[in-house]
Design a protein that fits this description.
4-stranded parallel β-sheet, 12 helices, globular, Rossmann fold, 2 domains, alpha/beta, 10 strands, 307 residues, single chain, 6-stranded parallel β-sheet
Amino acid sequence: MNLSLSLTCNRLKFGLFDSGVGGLSVLIELVQLLNGYEFTNHPEIHYLADTARCPYGTKSDAEIIDYVFQIASWFKQNDVNNLVMACNTSAAIAANKLRIMSDMPVYDLIGLSSNQDLAKYSKIMVLATNATVNSKAFTQALLKQEPNLEIFEIACPELVMLVESGNFDTNDARQILKKYADLAIRQNCQAIILGCTHFPFLTNALVKLLPSNIDIINPAKYLAREISQNLQLANVVNRKGQNCVLKFYTTGNSDQFKLQLKQCLNLAINHVEFIDLNYLEQLSSISNELNSAFINNINVTPKFAVS
């Protein structure tokens, strides 16, 4: 992807968003990375969970595009200078459009799943949402890197709500996951890409159902690698630095999201700010018909599918 980092006033301010808790799996990787560097000012991570509209995977393309531009506008207003689409459904549908309109680096995880590590595989399964599978975004990105790779994209929308409920490593979770694990085994897949950011929270349950010769790939780890390379290019010192400043927001119930943060991160957060959907909709840069038509008619190859 080769995106540079934007540092405003020598401070990194990342904006991460997802339809719910899935993007917290991306947050984990980013925090671990940033805490290994030394900055003049504490880097900030602002995480917005659009839980009032979760899940995104069942929404129309037009709805998802609108949500993305609303949230990007809101982050811009809050002086975020690096945007991470910690939701693969939104990236599959809207990443290319957002990059055209945005004046800050926009990261997604779909393109980052395409890397040199793929060379050892001949057959891969991608688990994702309906919208992501329908877009074929992972297939485009993966085939760009490895043209002979055999790819199975499988929609498993029920896994999103399984994670949202906090039931990660339970008998119920394993029962639901078993059909996907069995399919990977029958198809002789050598790896499974977790194509939705919710799914890394199911890794422990999935591992118990798979033979050791099937790898599980979490694209968020490649995001951390990409940003690490950019930090080195920016001459940021690679040593133990200050902790990140974390700020959390939700369009849903703040108390409920605090409980989910405890379940997912074992993190007790005193304050989660509520963001009213009406306010987001007012901020949307595509709220009028002319702009909406313009953006929805942009038909370019996604950057994650371009060498």
